[in-house]
Design goal:
The structure holds two protein chains of two kinds. By secondary structure, chain A is an alpha/beta fold. In chain A, about 25% of the residues lie in helices and about 35% in strands. Chain A has a nine-stranded mixed sheet, sandwiched between helices. Chain A starts with a strand and ends in a 5-residue tail after the last helix. Chain B folds into two domains: about 180 residues, HUPs (Rossmann fold), CATH 3.40.50.620; about 120 residues, Rossmann fold, CATH 3.40.50.1220. Chain B has a seven-stranded parallel sheet, sandwiched between helices. A five-stranded parallel sheet of chain B has the order 15-14-16-17-18. A three-stranded antiparallel sheet of chain B has the order 8-9-10, with no helix packed on it. In chain B, strand 16, helix 7 and strand 17 form a beta-alpha-beta unit. Chain B is globular, with a radius of gyration of 21 Å. Classes of the chains: A alpha/beta, B alpha/beta. At the A-B interface, helix 3, helix 4, strand 9, strand 10 and strand 11 of A face helix 3, helix 4, strand 7, strand 9 and strand 10 of B.
């Protein structure tokens, strides 16, 4: 199977965050492979190991994001395409989906996969947008994948339970991080990644019209979420504590 | 005068409360800005829900009824939503942020060339479109967003708005729908662990959530008993769903469900930021943990430092007395 996995470089959400004049100041040393995309890479590698094929990663982002491409190659992806942007653009989900749709328009593949959302913005839109643009059958929020002849079987976490969906290939799937534990690149993998091919594509190489690069939504500011204040913490005899807190919930909070 | 349309989601034979929250807010916006609030129900038995939706005051309710909507599948839902948008020509189309919504929102926006903001915690109308707040960076930060254009899609986190009933005199318009099997390439083979009569976490008033500290059978029994006394939904941290101890649909957090109950009781949960991102909007948080330094205590209104096996039995007895 030929897998294309779309990956993104994002800030580490565990890193300290600063806001200055409504803008997020992000530590450029704390940029990582989006955790959901890492699960998509891992799952593609597992299916390749079982059924053969090729895993290529595609990243839209600035030069700095090359290190994230290297990470995916070190995990075991065979090759990569880097669609370079300056990094200063205010692209939204739709713009990324437009760029990727243009890139994929002349490509052959069995499966396009990506994380179900970016861990920084949690928008979760680009995957199904890309599926729609390419007119592919798709499934989102996959927690398990299996390959059959001509079909990708997706276990999707839905509202009512886990849906088992057969998607005829070519198809698109977005992955939850609940499907696997992405492998840590081995030293050998890291060494090999340096020799793996990375094709550089400029936006101007793609036949993309200016209007599809215009975002329809904009982020205009950021603020720290008002933090919850720590309340009362009780230590002591379990019976006393249980009684005290149960009474507070009933009489003070009225939530029982 | 423009149309503010709300999608009414149905799951397990019930209207999702989050849809009615969005409809309540949309109707208030319509009243304040001389727009029209409308609603659409897409379901195998859509007409059954019309009377309930009427209470929230839309001026028109569209119904799309077809057996194909018995279970969620993205292709038929997208086709129905596209037809509805052609018919109703909404300026704003609002959704409760369910897993089904997340499955189609981007595709619908791409299909309709519409601006879209997902999972917002609040939004208002502006002259050019909407402005909205979204939790980002594992819900540590709120971002301000604008979406502009003549068609805007927005999905709203559950618990963001209060229910508000309105004038109950709505026109009902049935939209013809049919879909050929050949149009649906995907096959839904089965649904595992359908929730049945379990309490939907996204809508629960009270949630008891279990973490690593409650992973053995005795811990699970105590969790079940506590939930039963409080008529609460049961949730879990990622540690328990990953270990296969709890069903994945019960996971609360950045990757699982985002909840905002009146009362959230975290039992044996340390409080990693990914978990907190999913429950920080709860009204009252109670944490029970034997580690006095567990980060969950930083956000809990009431923290009990202690062994859950010793704390829960008397706690359950006390609550039983109160419930008496």
């Amino acid at each position: 199977m030929k897998f294309y996995v779309c990956i993104k470089q994002v800030p580490d959400v565990d890193a300290p965050i600063q806001i200055k004049d409504g803008k997020l100041i992000q530590d450029t040393d704390r940029m990582v492979l989006n955790a959901y995309d890492a699960s998509a890479v891992e799952e593609a590698l597992v299916l390749k190991e079982e059924h053969g094929g090729e895993v290529e990663v595609v990243l839209v982002g600035p030069d700095k994001a090359k290190e994230t491409i290297r990470k995916a190659l070190a995990m075991g992806a065979d090759k990569a395409t880097h669609i370079a942007t300056s990094g200063d653009e205010d692209y939204d989900s739709a713009t990324y989906a437009n760029i990727l749709a243009t890139f994929f328009s002349d490509k052959e593949y069995d499966v396009i996969s990506c994380g179900k959302q970016s861990q920084d913005t949690d928008a979760g839109l680009a995957g199904s947008m890309l599926g729609e643009h390419l007119d592919l059958p798709y499934a989102t929020n996959a927690v398990g994948l299996e390959a059959e002849e001509g079909t990708l079987v997706v276990k999707r976490q839905g509202d009512a339970g886990q849906e088992i969906i057969g998607l005829p290939t070519p198809c698109l799937v977005t992955c939850s991080n609940d499907m696997n534990e992405p492998r840590i690149p081995s030293l050998k993998g890291i060494m090999q990644s340096k020799r793996k091919p990375v094709e550089d594509v400029a936006l101007s190489d793609l036949d993309i019209d200016e209007s599809s690069l215009q975002p329809k939504t904009k982020v205009t500011g950021h603020m720290e979420k008002p933090e919850r204040e720590p309340g009362q913490k009780f230590e002591g005899e379990p019976e006393e504590l249980a009684q005290k807190v149960a009474t507070l919930l009933d009489e003070e909070e009225n939530v029982i | 005068m423009s149309t503010l349309l709300t999608h009414i989601a149905i799951s397990d034979g019930k209207i999702k409360r989050s849809s009615l929250e969005v409809l309540s807010h949309m109707r208030q916006l319509a009243e304040a800005n001389r727009h029209t609030a409308e609603a659409v129900i897409i379901d195998a038995e859509a007409s059954n829900y019309v009377d309930e939706v009427k209470k929230y005051g839309p001026s028109t309710i569209y119904t799309v009824e077809d057996p194909i909507f018995e279970n969620h599948m993205n292709t038929p839902l997208l086709k129905a939503l596209t037809k509805v948008m052609d018919e109703a020509e909404p300026y704003i189309f609002g959704f409760g942020s369910t897993e089904s919504t997340k499955d189609i929102l981007g595709a619908l926006a791409a299909n309709q060339d519409a601006a879209v903001l997902s999972d917002v915690s609040e939004f208002e109308l502006t002259d050019e479109g909407i402005e909205a707040k979204r939790p980002v960076m594992a819900a540590k930060i709120l971002s301000d967003n604008v979406a502009e254009g003549d068609r805007i899609l927005v999905s709203v986190r559950s618990g963001s708005y209060d229910l508000d009933e309105g004038d109950a005199d709505a026109d009902v318009v049935d939209i013809d729908f049919s879909i050929d099997d050949s149009e649906i390439q995907a096959t839904l083979r089965e649904i595992i662990g359908a929730s049945g009569d379990k309490i939907d976490l996204a809508e629960a008033e009270t949630i008891v959530a279990a973490g690593r500290g409650a992973k053995d059978e005795e811990g699970q029994d105590l969790i079940n008993e506590l939930a039963s006394v409080l008529n609460a939904g049961i949730g879990a941290s990622r540690a328990l769903t990953e270990a296969g101890i709890m069903d994945p649909s019960l996971q609360i957090g950045q990757t699982g469900k985002v909840v905002s109950p009146q009362l959230y009781i975290a039992v044996g949960i340390s409080g990693a930021i990914q978990h907190v991102a999913g429950m920080t909007n709860s009204k009252v948080i109670v944490a029970i943990n034997k580690d006095p330094d567990a980060p969950i205590f930083d956000i809990a209104d009431y923290g009990i430092v202690g062994d859950l096996y010793k704390v829960l039995p008397p706690f359950i007895e006390e609550l039983k007395k109160i419930k008496g």
